[in-house]
Specification:
There is one protein chain. With about 625 residues, the chain is of the alpha+beta class. It has four domains: about 20-175, Sandwich (Jelly Rolls); about 185-365, Jelly Rolls, CATH 2.60.120; about 370-530, Alpha-Beta Horseshoe (Leucine-rich repeat, LRR (right-handed beta-alpha superhelix)), CATH 3.80.10; about 585-620, no CATH class. Helix content is about 15%, strand content about 35%. The protein has six helices and 36 strands. The strands form six sheets. It has a 15-stranded mixed sheet that branches. The chain has a six-stranded mixed sheet with strand order 27-28-29-31-33-35, with no helix packed on it. A four-stranded antiparallel sheet has the order 6-12-9-10, with no helix packed on it. A hairpin with a 2-residue loop joins strand 21 and strand 22. The structure holds 2-acetamido-2-deoxy-beta-D-glucopyranose (7 copies). One 2-acetamido-2-deoxy-beta-D-glucopyranose (NAG) binds near residues 499, 500, 522 and 524. One 2-acetamido-2-deoxy-beta-D-glucopyranose binds near residues 279, 280, 281 and 336. Keywords: Membrane, Signal, Transmembrane, Transmembrane helix. It is found in: Membrane. Its main location: membrane. This is Malectin-like domain-containing protein.
Length: about 625
Amino acid sequence: MATIKLHLLCFTFLFYTLNARNAPYVMRISCGARQDVRTPRSNTLWYKDSAYTGGIPTNGTRPSYISPILSTIRYFPLSEGPNNCYNIQRVPRGHYVVRIFFGSVLEPDFDNDPLFDISVEGTLVYSLPSGWSNHDDEQVYAEVLTFLEDGTASLCFHSTGHGDPAILAIEILQVDEKAYYFGPEYGQGTILRTHSRLSCGDPKPKFDVDYKGDRWGGDRFWNFITTFGQNSELALSTSKNITQASNPPNYYPEALYQTALTTAVDQPILEYTMDVDANKNYSVWLHFAEIDPSVTGSGQRVINILINGDITFQDIDIVKMAGGSNRALVLNATVPVSGRTLTITIDPTEGHAIINAIEVFEIIMSESQTLRDEVRALQKLKAALGLPLRFGWNGDPCVPQQHPWSGADCQFDQSTSKWFIDGLGLDNQGLRGFLPDDISKLRNLQSINLSGNSISGLIPASLGSIYTLEKLDLSFNFFNGSIPETLGQLTSLRKLELNSNSLSGRVPATLGGRLLHGASFNFTDNAGLCGIPGLPSCGPHLSLGAKIGIGFGVCLAVVLLVTCATCWWKRRQNILRAQKLTAREAPYAKRRTQFSRDVQMTLHHGPENARTAAENGPSLLT
Ligand SMILES: *[C@@H]1O[C@H](CO)[C@@H](O)[C@H](O)[C@H]1NC(C)=O
Ligand SMILES: *[C@@H]1O[C@H](CO)[C@@H](O)[C@H](O)[C@H]1NC(C)=O
Ligand SMILES: *[C@@H]1O[C@H](CO)[C@@H](O)[C@H](O)[C@H]1NC(C)=O
Ligand SMILES: *[C@@H]1O[C@H](CO)[C@@H](O)[C@H](O)[C@H]1NC(C)=O
Ligand SMILES: *[C@@H]1O[C@H](CO)[C@@H](O)[C@H](O)[C@H]1NC(C)=O
Ligand SMILES: *[C@@H]1O[C@H](CO)[C@@H](O)[C@H](O)[C@H]1NC(C)=O
Ligand SMILES: *[C@@H]1O[C@H](CO)[C@@H](O)[C@H](O)[C@H]1NC(C)=O
C-alpha cells in the first residue's frame, strides 16, 4: 500500500488561442498571477491562474535571466499533499512543447531550493537536481516534446520531501506533428526531454523569438557556447542569409546558423562533453552551415562525427550535402548512453572542424495510463468520502509509478496496456461521507478495506457487480439499512466483514448460504441483522398466501371490533338515559351513599354485583 499522502487540484482554462489555421496553439500561464501579464520586448502574453485553487500564490523570484520576467509563483506546501497538478483543458490534440519554469519563494530565510519531480501526462519527465538554482542555465526549467491526445494537458508536481514545489510559469506551445522525428520509435509512446540546446559561437543566449524564428518552432531556448574549453576554437559569424533553415518540421531560426565554432589549424578536432544520466537513450541533433568564406566548394571540408567514441556520421561534406554554402544541414542520431557523459567529437578528414548548434534530448518512454472510467470512479469516491489532501489523489492514480495515489493498489494489464485498480485500502483514515454507487466502476477490485472509519448511509447495491471482489471489509463504520441482496452474486467473495455497523434486516439467503460453506464473515454488533445461524431469527417466513390470509384476518377483526364498540356505546346510552330519570328524584348525597354501599356489596356478594357497580359507578361520579 502506498503511503504517500497528498491531494490534487485541477484547473481549467476556458480560453485558448487557436485563431488562425496556421497559428500554432499557444498557452502561457504566469503562476500565482492575479492579472494577465505581458512581458517586455516580445510583448508575450501570460495568463493569470487565479481560477486555480490549489497551492499558494505568492511573490517569488526568478532564479535566472532565462526565466520570463514574472514576479509571482505558486507553491505547494506538503499540507496540500504530495501530488499537485495543473490540468489545462481544451488543448487541441497535437504535438507540443511543454515548458515549466521553476521559481523560488521570495523570503530571506528561504535558502533551500525545493527538489521535486515533474510528470507530464503521467510520465515522470524530470527530477530537479540539487543546486539547480545556482546554475544560470537550462536547469531553471523542464521542457518536453510530447503528443497531447485527450484535450487536456496534465502537469503534476510531486514532492520528494525536499521543500515545496514552486512554479513560476507554464508554456504549452504547439509544434509540427513531425517535429524532431528521430526514427520509428517516435510517436505517442515517447517523450523527448530537452537536455541541452547550444548555439555555438553566439555570444548571447536567445529564444527563437529573439532570433525571429517561426512560431511553429516552439520558441526554443538556445544557450550560448563560445568555447568547448580547448583554447583553440574560433567563433565564426556571418550576416549572410541562410537558406533551408526555417523549414518544416523543425523551423529552425535562420540566425542559428549565422554563428559557428571552428578550430585553428594546429588542433583540428572539436570535442564537447556534457553530463547526462546513465542508461538512457539520447536523441542528438547537430546543425551545420558552411559560413566560412574560405571554404568555397565540396571536398574542402570533410568531417567524421563520433558520439562517445563511435563514428555516428562519416565523411560529412557540408557544402555537398546542403547543396552549397550558407545552407543549413541538420543531422540526427539516436544513441544509447551507459555512462554519465555524452561526448560529441567533430573529427575532420579534410580542413577544420566546424559546428553551428547542438541539441540533445533524453528519450523517455511514456507511461501507460489508468483506465479512464476507473480514474473517474476514484474521483467520485474522493469527493464522496471527503478524502483529505494528504492522500494526494491528483493526476493519474497509478503513474508516475514513483508517485501513486495512497490507498489505491494498481495492476498493469499487458493486453490493453492500461493500469487498473485492484485494491482499495482506506482503513482507519478518519473518513466520513458515504460510499457512492460509482464504486462499481472499479470493476477489477479484489479487495476493499474501509474498516474503522465513520462512513454512513447504505451499502451500495452496485457492489454486487464487482465480480472479482474477494475481500470486503466495511467493519467499524456507520452503514445502515439492510445488506443488499446483490452481494449474494459475488461468487469469489472469501471474506466479508460487516461487523460494528448499524445494519438491520435479513442477511440475503444467497450470501448466508454460501458463506456457511468456507468463506469467513462477521456480522456481529449491528442494529438488527437476522436470518443466518449465529444471528437472531427473523421470525416465521410467510408465503404470499399466508400474508394475504393474515391481512384478511386483521380486516375482519377490525370490523368486529367496530361493531362491538358501537353496540356497547348504544347500550351505555340507554342505561344513562334510565339513570337520569332516577337521579331527578334523589339528592346527590343519597346517590353517593348508594354507590358506597354498592361497592361494599361487590366485596361481599361476588362478581355479578361487582359488574353492575362498575357500570353504574362512573356514570354516577361524572
Ligand atoms: C507581492 O508584492 C506586491 C507588490 O509588488 C505586494 O503588493 C503584495 O502584497 C505582495 N504579495 C505578497 C503575498 O507578499
Ligand atoms: C532523423 O534521422 C532519422 C534517421 O536516422 C531520419 O529518418 C529522420 O528523417 C531524421 N529527422 C529529421 C527531422 O530530419
Ligand atoms: C535576407 O533575408 C531578409 C529577410 O529575412 C531579406 O529582407 C533580405 O533581403 C535577405 N537578403 C538577401 C541577400 O537575400
Ligand atoms: C534504448 O533503446 C533501445 C532500442 O530502441 C531499447 O531497447 C532500450 O530499452 C532503450 N533504453 C532505455 C533506457 O529506454
Ligand atoms: C482491514 O483493515 C483492518 C485494520 O487496518 C485490518 O485489521 C483488517 O484485517 C483488514 N481487513 C481485511 C479484509 O484485510
Ligand atoms: C441511514 O442513515 C441516514 C443518516 O446517516 C438516514 O438519513 C437514513 O434514513 C438511514 N437509512 C436507514 C434505512 O435507516
Ligand atoms: C467479529 O467482530 C467483533 C467486533 O465487532 C469481534 O469482537 C469478533 O471477534 C469478530 N468475530 C470474528 C469471528 O472475527
